[in-house]
Amino acid sequence: MPAISFKNVSYSYVDGNESFLALEDIDLEIADGEFVCLIGHSGCGKSTLLSLLAGLSMPTAGEILIDDAPVSGPGPDRSIVFQSYSLFPWQTALKNVMFSIRQTNKDISKEQAKMRAMELLAQVGMEDAANRYPFQLSGGMRQRVAIARALGIDAPTMLLDEPFGALDPLIRGKLQELLLRLWNEGEGCCKTAVFVTHDID
Ligand code: ADP
Ligand code: MG
Question: Probe ligand 1: pick from 15, 41, 44, 159, max atoms within 8 Å of CB?
Fold first, then answer.
């Protein structure tokens, strides 16, 4: 049984009297634990599809089910990594990761959250930069922290919208490998991942 299913999903952006059909009649099934890439050129509707799955907007027609339940909004079962601006600029890397851990695990102590956040930062090779603020990090480092923060939510599904799109090809390749490694054997193990990109690699 697929974990995620889109059934005849359409979406129109409406602005006053104008309406723009961005997605039409999408059927898609994603199995539990599958890593799926959505590839297409700019403007084809990838981000629209992902934001529907994230529950940030609702389909104009059709429905999206996760484990047979309709998506009615964002939830702790889905973490998201965007292309940029995903970190809180006023918090250090460590605090950014601790925030997500404590959001979804209210009972955890500050010390435990800190330990867990340091583990996740180590997973993405960022433990030495834990006390730096986003503006003190390169684009690639920021996205590593963003991945650690998404993993901190410990959601069964990870949604990634061109997370490495703004990075140079060398760094992008490295982070793609890192993400796959985490997904295969590390922290991301057994998660369902939906990865939006326009990059064939
Ligand atoms: P992608 O992520 O594949 O580049 P998007 O999902 O962002 O594409 O956009 C799909 C289409 O919807 C594009 O033609 C875009 O211009 C249009 N679109 C996106 N956001 C809006 C909006 N807020 N209002 C109107 N049209 C939009
Ligand atoms: Mg997009």
Answer: 44
